[in-house]
Amino acid sequence: MLNLQFIYTNYNPNAMNLDCRVKTLLILVIAILATFAYAYMPEDVSITLKRIDVSSLAPDTTAVAVDPQVEVVDTAKTIDQRNHRILFFGDSMTEGLLRRFGDYAAENGHELNVICWYSSNTDLWANTGTLKHYIKKFDPTYIVICLGGNELFVRDLPKREKNIAKIIETIDTIPFVWVSPPNWKPDTGINDLIIKHVGKSRYFDSRYLELQRGKDHVHPTFSAAAIWMDSIAVWLRGFDTEHPIRMDVPQASHKPTSVTMHAPNFKGIN
Q: With left for phi above 0 and alpha for psi between -120 and 50, is residue 46 left, alpha or beta?
């Protein structure tokens, strides 16, 4: 009975109502403060909200990220380990590349025969017997072309397209790749035209390389051309190339097997 009396005498309805109002007010104040805190939160503060994972309920259509450090091997291709007879021909850009190319070729057991025809273009190589002559002379098992530098700003693209097709026809079944000129200005379409006929897997695109240029502001310096050739060599042994060949990094300097230079006034071989 005493306990009941104690409870009863300590029960105060007004005090209880006041206590509830205070608690309600405190909750309201906390909510307002939280709203202001979120609104004025610095942008560099991030909040992670946890959500329910429903991915298992839908088909998996997400792309899988590939670690760039992991080598992706195309099982449909293998690097050709044979010792090749490489014919490397083109315009004056070949002069800068041939030194470093000679290092790679000899180091990997390849012959490298270079034909550098200054100021030449697809027209001269397609419509003279020069290419046929050197294919017959060196009997190449692999061909590398470097042409287009003298045609970056041409307007007669339909004519150039016929030249490109004729060069490919002359090469016939010999594996080949085409190295584009290292553009110093945007071209009028010759690069895309060559890609159209040879395909991206046979075209090393040099257009966007940042290379130090010589005094003419056109040709890369010899040191820059060596870097250019290093990039080409990596591509030549990679699976993005139509016919990858052995191109391990050279440990010594070597000369090409042969180098033939033709002056700009050379009319070609008929």
A: beta
